[in-house]
Structures are given as C-alpha cells and as structure tokens.
C-alpha cells in the first residue's frame, strides 16, 4: 500500500489513547464464538450487553514518550509508520463514504477511530486486543489495538500486510455506514448477524475499488487485494472454529465462512457499487 507522499492527513479522525490502558490482567470473555476475535458489534446484534461478558479494568496514567498520531501529517508519514498508515486509511475510507452518501442524497457523519494499547473503555464495554477491532454504535467509534494486526498473522494464520490492515479497518467502517443508513439493527438471529457482517465485508471491498479516488493512496495492486482476501479467509467462522474447537458448527456462525467473506469482499471490489452489497439472500 503506497500513499501519495504529498497527501495531507487529518489526524483528528483518530483518537490516540495508547499508553493510557492497563497492560496487566485483562478482560474475561465468557462463552465461545470466535476466540480472540469476539467482535462487540456481534454481541449487540445478538442482544447481549458486552459489559456483561467483558470485565472492566482500571487504567493507568499516560506513558511519556509514546508516539502520537498528531505527528502524522502527510502520506509520506503513512508510508513510514503503522499508526500513520491507520490515519491514512481512516481518512481515505471516510472521504469515500462521505462523498458517496452525499452523492446518494444522504449525510455521512464522521466516526473517529480510537487506537489504544492494552485496554480502554467504550460505550459498548471494555475494548481490548482480545475483543478484536470493532465498531460501537453506542458512541459511533471504531476501536482498534494495532497489535491485533500482528495477532491476525500469529494466531489466525493470515499473511498480513498493509492492505490486510486496510480491509479490517474498512470493514468496521462498513458497520458505521450501515448504522448511518439504518441497516444496523439489533437482532437475536445468528443468520441476521452473518448478513450484517458479510455486507460490511462487501462495503470494505467497495471502498477498496475507489481507494485511489480519494486522493490519499495509489490503487491497490493484485497482490494487495490478495492480502485483504487472505485476511477475510483467516477470520471466517469455519476456520476459527476448526482451529479452536476442532469442528465446524454453522448454526453458531456470526460472521460467515471464509468462502463467504472472500466472496462478498470480491463482490464489493469488482463492482465498486454498494447496491451490489445486498446480503439478504444469505
């Protein structure tokens, strides 16, 4: 992933809480599901209060000397630093959806991404690396511990890479788009949850198709799209269940299979049209 070195980044779209979270202990996640990738939005869709399954933890004072995203000013910074790359991705994703929803006669309200280390509080409960990145509709923010990107490779077997990271972030903003359009409704149905997650994968692909149009980065290469598809496969419910419990139970899926997640990302990417992201038939 290559950013235009002269592109002006807007670091105000990312709230940097690194150094303010606890680094000892941690939240206890009750129940099964995608161990290590328990997306809080899925709990909300299932009618479960995330605070009832995730313990809160106290925070520590900020640590001096920690880099801040406020230093991320240009695309050149995004090409050098991972946290600045997150800023660049967030800026690009939000630029695209703001323009696209405006073109469609709707209004897009920007949603900040909160990056943190350890744990931090969210309106949906405690955020941690164990919960994985998630979108919280209660405060309309995306939560991300950047260390998750390493876990995506070491724990889930993804190849990783910058565009795998972009896929993850764009997926969460797909939920924000759903929220903006009134499509993110609470339900107790696993099947409905899968539809919501696959649609977010598709919306992620739509952004990828138009990423270069936002002026922040160059069009992704085939190799970079392969990174995104590999990440989508790595977090498929069937693959995670096989790894963690030795068997696959489709009736308990909340995000969709590896094949489904790849299919819907590709649908969004090849069409570049959010109208093609109708997962109601899944």
Which key features would you list for this structure?
alpha/beta; globular; 6 strands; single chain; 4-stranded mixed sheet; 9 helices
What does this structure look like?
The protein has 282 residues and is α/β, with parallel strands linked by helices. 41% of the residues lie in helices and 8% in strands. The chain is built from 9 helices and 6 strands; from the N terminus they run βαααβββββαααααα. The strands form 2 sheets. The protein has a 4-stranded mixed sheet, covered by helices on one side. α5 crosses α6 (190-210) and α7 packs antiparallel against α9 (258-271). The chain is globular, with a radius of gyration of 17 Å. The model is unreliable at 22-65 (pLDDT under 50).
């Amino acid at each position: 992933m290559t950013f235009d070195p002269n592109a002006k980044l807007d670091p105000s779209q990312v709230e940097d809480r690194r150094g303010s979270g606890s680094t000892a202990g941690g939240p206890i996640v009750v129940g099964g599901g995608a161990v290590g990738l328990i997306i809080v939005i899925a709990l909300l869709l299932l009618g479960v209060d995330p605070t009832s399954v995730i313990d809160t933890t106290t925070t520590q004072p900020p640590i001096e000397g920690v880099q801040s995203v406020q230093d991320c000013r240009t695309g050149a910074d995004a090409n050098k630093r991972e946290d600045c790359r997150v800023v660049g991705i967030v800026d690009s994703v939000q630029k695209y959806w703001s323009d696209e929803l405006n073109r469609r006669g709707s209004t897009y309200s920007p949603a900040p991404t909160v990056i943190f280390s350890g744990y931090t509080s969210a309106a949906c409960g405690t955020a941690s690396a164990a919960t994985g990145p998630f979108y919280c509709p209660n405060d309309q923010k995306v939560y991300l511990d950047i260390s998750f990107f390493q876990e995506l490779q070491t724990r889930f077997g993804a190849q990783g890479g910058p565009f795998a990271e972009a896929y993850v972030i764009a997926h969460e903003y797909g939920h924000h788009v759903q929220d903006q359009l009134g499509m993110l409704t609470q339900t107790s149905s696993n099947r409905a949850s899968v539809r919501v997650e696959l649609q977010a994968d598709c919306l992620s692909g739509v952004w990828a198709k138009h990423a270069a149009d936002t002026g922040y980065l160059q069009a992704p290469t085939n190799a970079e799209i392969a990174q995104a598809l590999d990440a989508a496969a790595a977090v498929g419910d069937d693959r995670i269940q096989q790894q963690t419990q030795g068997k696959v139970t489709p009736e308990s899926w909340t995000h969709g299979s590896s094949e489904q997640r790849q299919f819907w990302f590709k649908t969004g990417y090849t069409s570049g049209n959010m109208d093609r992201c109708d997962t109601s038939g899944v």
